[in-house]
From TrEMBL:
GO terms for molecular function: hydrolase activity. InterPro entries: AB_hydrolase_fold, Dienelactn_hydro. Signal peptide: none annotated. This is Dienelactone hydrolase domain-containing protein. The lineage of its organism: Eukaryota, Viridiplantae, Streptophyta, Embryophyta, Tracheophyta.
Amino acid sequence: MCLFASLLLHKQYKGFEDAKAVIESLKNKGVSAIGAAGFCWGAKVVVELAHINAGVLLHPSFVTVDDIKEVKAPLAVLGAEFDHLSPPALVKQFEEVLATKPEFDGFVKIFPGVAHGWTVRVQS
């Protein structure tokens, strides 16, 4: 399925609303530490979630520097060398912003030789 068709079927706001409900349910059951991983557009969902204890963004898309500025929990950003949605220059800006936040850890790595989507599909 192409990205455009996928985005039409799977809206970010729906992912965000679904994730909020899951987090609330977990907290109601006494879970005290919650992390979230976002792949592609799911990365935008992770940076918008409040009250998580840690997050990881894998080949993120639709995430802005302003989004990263609002993050308040440890965050790892795993980018791709060949990524038109989050090019290495943008991922490096994320790293610069995270470095200004001494209250929590940030980790950024750009994986060489891989393209956007590398964490969920075979790279040739």
